[in-house]
## 1
Amino acid sequence: MSGMSRIVKTICSSIFPLVMIYGLYVIAHGHLTPGGGFQGGAIVASALAMILVAYGSVWTMGKIKEKNLSLLESLGALGFITLAFLGLIIVVDGASVFFNNFLVNTNFLFGIAPATGSTAANINTGGILPLMNFSVGLKVIAGLFVIILVMAYASNAKEAKK
Amino acid sequence: MSKRNIVAIVFFAIVAVLFIFSALMVHPFGNPDSKDMDEYIIDHTQEETGANNGVTGVVFDYRGFDTLGEATVLFTAVAGVIMIFRRVKK
């Protein structure tokens, strides 16, 4: 089974970039608009699942191995826990707490704090929140997609054996 | 009507009465019993976490430990699925 018809493949290929852009936007703007790492990661993973359904699991497994996806997922988890422990290591104003937001109010990367109340969105705010959104997004993308890919490949192999 | 149906109807009536009572006793919308924490988060999220989106401020900063647990759940699920469906080398 090598995927669906040419029409489905063409339409999925043309929709795929738009869905990817939308999901990555939701991840990158997690500290400004509704959404975040989990939600945007689910959107991107569903875009990848669409490609998987259209092109078949054997083709997709030839493009990307589940070992590499598992590595990406572990990298996301490692980034998340590293950021959490950096809050424990770096001392800000005499306090160092697990999950401390050490980047906010430093005018460094993502370090600007917005004024209280309804303000215009500035992407350069949020401290470690955008970085945590990125790592959680990477984790959710790789995690959800590797589950779908491995299950599809296993059922496909069972069909081929019969 | 069998005995089993009567038991089911009585049980359904009890559960329905409980649900209706709890729905009638809910406090009015937008007026919680204790609002200290809500107002603290609404007032201080933007200066303390720097996020305009208060929900992300709570999920990744005030309750980051909870998010760590969620990420661990996902990690465990993925590890289990890969372990079950791994290709056995012969």
## 2
Amino acid sequence: MTISKNNIKKVEIVMGMPITIEIYKSANNKSTNKDIEEAFDYFREVDEKYSSFKETSEVGKYNRGEEVSAEMKELLKLAAKTKLETKGYFDIRKPNGKIDPSGIVKGWAICNAVDILRKKGYKKFFVDAGGDAEIVGKNWKWGIRNPFNKKEIVKVLKLSDCGIATSGTYERGQHIYDPVGEKAEITDIVSLTVIGPNVYEADRLATSAFAMGRAGIEFIEKLKGLEGYMIDKDGVATYTSGFERYVSLL
Amino acid sequence: MKKFFLSVLAIGIFVIYSIHLKLGGNENPSVAVKTSNTISSGAPAGGYKDGTYLGNVADAFYGNIQVQAVISGGRLTNVVFLQYPSDRSTSRMINAQADPMLAQEAIQAQSAQVSGVSGATATSGAFVQSLGSALQQAS
């Protein structure tokens, strides 16, 4: 745990990625530490149950044709709904026939972890899992990572009560496929950030929009309440007409 | 409520008029973001140059107002409120039409301190190693 200026922050790797929870100016360190730990326990539980990499997870069971839990069925329903809304661009079924719901599990899990902390009464905090975050409270300063240089940020944002997610190819190498087109990997754009009412929306739509290639940013533009910032392979960014309201001028 | 509405309207009209003056005068509208250009569509027919233009921040007494005007086909087709008095709940978009008005810029490294960074999932081995050693020092 680290404490800076009365904020309490913890970072731990769960689900194969760094998860960060920071609570603003906590009054009681001891109970805050406990509450943060409870949120991390929840992530560990999600990892056990929904990891695409664990044989014993619900995903593993589903891929082997075994019976799955009611919660898994709910997740599958959400995935099907997203596939419909994005005309097939969001598809958890991969070219090898197996499902990988990580594009939807992450945002969904973050939202649930946020609920745990909201119920405890926290009003200003964030939960970030591998670069996708739910921001609670006003004026958190946030950056968009430079796809060409991990150590740099290329945009400074001021975020309040929203979700932010970025889909990209530059971290794990190419891992997003265009399910509607030629089953080819997306290469013309390298990063697409979506800001929305919550991280579940931002996450599923960033993934879907990214799979559309350059047209993805137009898809986000047409959606009310969502803004996007897309970076192409030449370092040119295209952003939606309402995006500038999130840009920090300081 | 009525007074508020009138001042919003007055400020809005003032801002739109100041944008109108700017459009008449020069090629470069005042923009807060330095390197942005706009992709515009349609031939000028109503006297304005197609594009997206940022108005100045105006003090509306209850708070600031800043609008963005969208011109397409030479006419004002959309006015977007970027800043509005925050103690009133208002809808943010006055959508005349749903035309996409995307803007572009070259990305630039920024030096501000931030609480978090949004980027695609970091699972590369080097990152995990580096983070691990940092956490060790921090604990």
